[in-house]
Amino acid sequence: MIRDTLIMTHGKPRTFGRYAFWGVIIVLVLAFLGWSFTPSAVPVDLGTISSGAMTVQVESEGRTRVNDIYVISAPVSGLLKRIRAKAGDAVIANQTRLAAIEPADPTILDRRSRAEAEATAQAAEDVLALALAEMDRARAELTFARTEHNRAQQLRQRGTISQRDLDVAELEVVTRAARLKSAEARAKVRQHELETARARLLTSIGDSANRECCVEIFAPVSGRVLRVVHESAGVVAAGTELLEIGNPSELEVVVDLLTSDSVRIREGAKVIIDTWGGPALTGTVRRIEPFGYTKVSVLGIEEQRVDVVIDFSDPENLPTSLGHGFRVETKIEQWRGDNVLRAPMSALFRVQDSWAVYVFDQGSARLARIDVGHMNDREAEVQSGLEDGDLVVLHPSDQISDGVRLSRREE
Q1: What is the pTM assigned to this prediction?
Q2: d(CA 101, CA 216)
Q3: I need a surface site. Which of 182, 244, 288, 397 has the fewest CB within 10 A?
């Protein structure tokens, strides 16, 4: 009995130690599992809500052009001599000769046309010969009438014939003289007809070096040659464009905007002109043209666009390297605020029908719905829901929700 009591006494401490050991193991396992499944803080980038100036701009591609471009056209049809002027050459109004036009060679006749023209010329020669024969007969009749008139005057002086017979002889002289003039006129007409018929047989008007220039074209204004449209010599029709001239120092910018964008800007709006190859320039909107047109985009979509004309703010000090037809990027001011509460656009996202952000609130994310006013590609005007100095999460991912622990990512 004493032995059994000793065994019970010595076994009790062993059972208690075994329970304590496994209890510690279970606690450690539970702690490890709890630590493993506890979500860690999500590293995020933060932006600050601040007050300051904000501008909303309409950005588009444009091109420069001379204010007044003069297109020089051929005033008459003819053979244009080679234009020696080059793009960039200076011209003086009413002094610099730009082009010269001389008569062009006649059309070359084919075999049938030449045969017809030769037959017409031969017929004209025969008609002229007939007219000359009639003229000779009229001249002979006039000579005979004058002889008869002289004879009648002598007989009248002798009293052999009456006064009426003398008058008849005088009338015959006048009549024959008129017939001679008519025959001479017909002969001249036939002569001209023969010359016209022979002219149709001509295929060249001679060496071009010996031709007299008929029309010379001078510069209407002082400036520079912008473009030579028709440089080589050749036959041109009246109205053919030959050159373009203007003053490169008088530039403007033309931007084609979507009609939906053009209604949001006003004449006199400030413009930044950039990416032309030099420093950024400034300008103002001078005119928004009222006529829209259809333009097909690079994606094949038809768009309604309208031209907006922009003047440079300092045209007298424009870089000489900026010329006509240069590509530029423009930023036209649509709206401006001087003291606006601004939020980064990268922090905004949509929740149902409103805008929202995640605010960094003491290490946790807090969903805040906000009212947004004007927006550009970088910032948005906050009308309510945030305060100056608040920190918001930039580019929130799907790991972030309301109440999730956050940590600021090291920059």
Answers
A1: 0.63
A2: 6
A3: 397
